[in-house]
Specification:
Layout lengths: L1 E7 L2 E5 L10 E5 L3 H11 L6 H4 L4 H4 E4 L2 E10 L7 E11 L5 E7 L4 H12 L7 H34 L5 H6 L7 H34 L9 H67 L14 H22 L4
Parallel strand pairs: 3-7
Antiparallel strand pairs: 1-2, 1-3, 4-5, 5-6, 6-7
Helix pairs in contact: 4-5, 5-7, 5-8, 7-8, 8-9
């Protein structure tokens, strides 16, 4: 899908192909067809990277200058709060004209909520200008805010899981409490999902940090990086550093909770095995008594004794109760 955005009183307005492409503030290519790519290339005189080129991991293939345009490719998290988060490459092509104008082209093959939020935000707080740097930095700011919100949601859910996993009290109290102890298998699954999201956010933060550093270093005259844009870019680099530290903290917390949950699962499994072992030990003496009186010998005094049967039952009951009381005294049960 190809969408042209023009600036109308500081707001980005989607429009059909205008008569003059230089008057376009932003061109968004979302899973474009070959015809749409050729249209943009002919209109702006740019070489649109292919999908395979966008996936190259070499820095020289992701951050470079081509025909006076700055080409920046970064991996961003798509559907971060959904059931299937992914990391997909997104390319920004900036071509300033040196007179406060120019155009920004974005190329992506995934749905990014940040782009729609940026357009909505422009309607509430109009842009000061429609030059490519303002639009690019506005999108970048929205992307960073979305990553921060994602990490915040992960942190809140981890706090909730921590309270549920390490809730104090005995099992009966936990079972009747308003917030019962979580099923550890479900908790383990949620921790795995959070680990996936945190690792993908870290990938995006690292890519954005490299991209911001590259743009800050490219101060050639033909790029026309305004001083205010450079100041915003430096502020973004500080934000990215803070988010990276926060991501590392959450990653360590996820690892701790994963180890703790696996440990609790082992504790519960050991408790079950302990119960079976105790039950087996309790029934071993009665089984021994029953085996003795089940032997076929001609002379056994208790066989002709009127109280032999009740005596055998009482002996088996006592043989079972005494080990049970001993285990309770030792607090093994």
């Amino acid at each position: 899908m190809l969408t042209y955005y023009t600036l109308d009183q500081g707001c980005l307005v989607p429009t059909d192909k205008p008569d003059g492409c230089p008057h376009v503030a932003w061109v968004d290519l979302h899973s474009p067809t070959e015809a749409e790519e050729r249209e943009v290339e002919e209109c702006l005189g740019l070489d649109i990277p292919t999908k395979a080129e966008m996936r190259d991991i070499e820095a020289s293939s992701r951050l470079y200058v081509d025909k006076g345009a700055l080409v920046l490719t970064v991996d961003l998290v798509s559907n971060a709060t959904g059931p299937d988060p992914r990391v997909e490459p997104v390319t920004f092509l900036l071509r300033p004209d040196g007179q406060g104008g120019g155009c920004l082209v974005t190329l992506r093959y995934c749905e990014l909520r940040s782009f729609a939020l940026f357009v909505q935000g422009c309607n509430r707080e109009p842009l000061e200008s429609g030059d490519p740097w303002t639009v690019f930095l506005g999108i970048l700011e929205t992307v960073i805010e979305r990553l921060a919100e994602t990490l915040e949601k992960v942190g809140e859910d981890l706090d909730d899981l921590t309270r549920r996993i390490f809730r104090r009290g005995n099992r009966r109290q936990l079972a009747t409490a308003s917030a019962p102890r979580a099923d550890l298998s479900v908790v383990l699954e949620r921790i795995g999902q959070h680990h996936d999201v945190v690792s993908k956010v870290r990938t995006s933060l690292l890519g954005l940090g490299r991209m911001a550093a590259y743009v800050a270093q490219r101060r050639e005259a033909h790029l026309k990086l305004p001083p205010e844009a450079l100041a915003r870019l430096e502020a973004f680099r500080v934000d990215l550093g803070s988010l990276s530290e926060h991501d590392n903290v959450l990653s360590a917390k996820v690892d701790f909770m994963l180890d703790a949950t696996l440990g609790l699962i082992n504790v519960e499994q050991n408790g079950i095995i302990k119960i079976f072992s105790v039950v087996s030990v309790i029934f071993m003496p009665p089984t021994l008594v029953a085996s003795i009186y089940g032997m076929n010998f001609d002379w056994m005094p208790e066989l002709n004794w009127p109280y032999g049967y009740p005596f055998a039952l009482a002996l088996m009951l006592g043989a079972a109760v005494l080990p049970y009381l001993y285990f309770k005294w030792r607090r093994w049960l």
